[in-house]
User: What shape does this take?
Amino acid sequence: MPESWVNLAESLGADLHLELTGPGSRRAVLIRALRDAVRSGRLAPGTRLPPYRSLAVDLGIARNTVADAYAELVAEGWLSARQGSGTRVAQRAEPPAPTRAPARRAPKRRPTHNLLQGQPDAASFPRTAWLAAARRALTAAPNDAFGPGDPRGRPELRRALSDYLARTRGVRTDPDRIVICSGFAHALRLLFPAVLPGPLAVESYGLPFHRHLLTTAGVRTHPLAIDEHGANTGELSALDDIRTALLTPAHQFPTGVPLHPDRRAAAINWARATGSYLLEDDYDGEFRYDRKPVGALQGLDPERVLHLGSVSKSLSPAVRLGWMVLPGRLVDAVLEAKGEREAWAGVTDQLTLAEFITSGAYDRHIRRMRQRYRRRRDQLVDAVTAQAPHLTVTGISAGLHAVLQLPHDASESDEGTALRAAHWQGLALDALSDYRHPDATMPPRHGLVIGYATPSDSAFPAALETLCRALPPGA
Assistant: This one.
């Protein structure tokens, strides 16, 4: 169909160009041309169009074709037609101008060295051994593994964990009392407030993310004082409204001290006497350096202690697998809270981890990483001792981080100055006060939390050198 000029001088005072080209019937081409004219503003709202008979003559097409096109555009709201007024371009609100995407903030300068706590060396993930375990696991997996399963998690993984935790952590359980989840935070979401009552006793220093998660769930947290012996669990007996306590007994986070045996016993006695529960966050129980491993608190009373763990420190946070070792009476309630399958951990990863554990590959990986992290820790201690002997390195007997304690007379301002100096040098790390509970009444501690696991072996010496340059000078 050729291009056409339509004389609309009577209504517009000018000619209108309609480009009648493109695929489709004459009716479809005319509708598209009129829409384009209205959309582009060449036919303004209120503009009167010629009678369909006149337009049909000008375009050399059938009158019924033009009449049908007008009717279609009236129905769509592009045109309006009234008796005695003819056909006009409909009065329409101007469409809002397309909103521009908000300007992206300039990205923060990437730190030169990552010394944040809680992050394992990503380059050390055992890719070859993990892939081999995945192949073996998937080859041997029964067909029902790929259908609807047990909300507890795959039985292969629960059996493997039952044996492994008993052997390495002194946990007393059986596979039916283990529920697989996607990590510690997922476990908290399942337990509170659906399964366990609030408020909850927590340690005065801990991960802010966990406190925020609990607060969002409507659970109030009450801080327990900590010292060189860990959390003061003797305070629990004075808290009449508390029936649950969250502890890091093997390696207090982030100060790094183990819970003293007397305080472990006090916590168990409180739970038994009051019918309460203890949550044991065993976040880095595998990494012990200068002392014998501290057994799990759960081993003292499996009916009062919930043992929670994951592979986020031992393998990688990218492997979204954790576990809850539960008292028997809580298993059904946790499964009900877990609900539909969308909240379940992926089966293939569960099967792979089960094979990784039972084949001995997990133990070999832990031993290798324990040696590597211990060397990193020793390098950190040696560097600080040589360059900043006025600072004390604490929490070094286990885990993936240490605390550089500032002098006893240091203030929060001194800590902030030290943190800014570190950031200025391109170091990503945290201040100890970042982990303090806002309601804690114990005297504050000041220092820097140094994660020594994340940098590669080749980058770690430069990270230490930079850290020492940033540390506050001695008196």
Confidence is low (pLDDT under 50) at residues 9-14. The longest helix spans residues 361-387. The first strand starts at residue 4 and ends at 7.
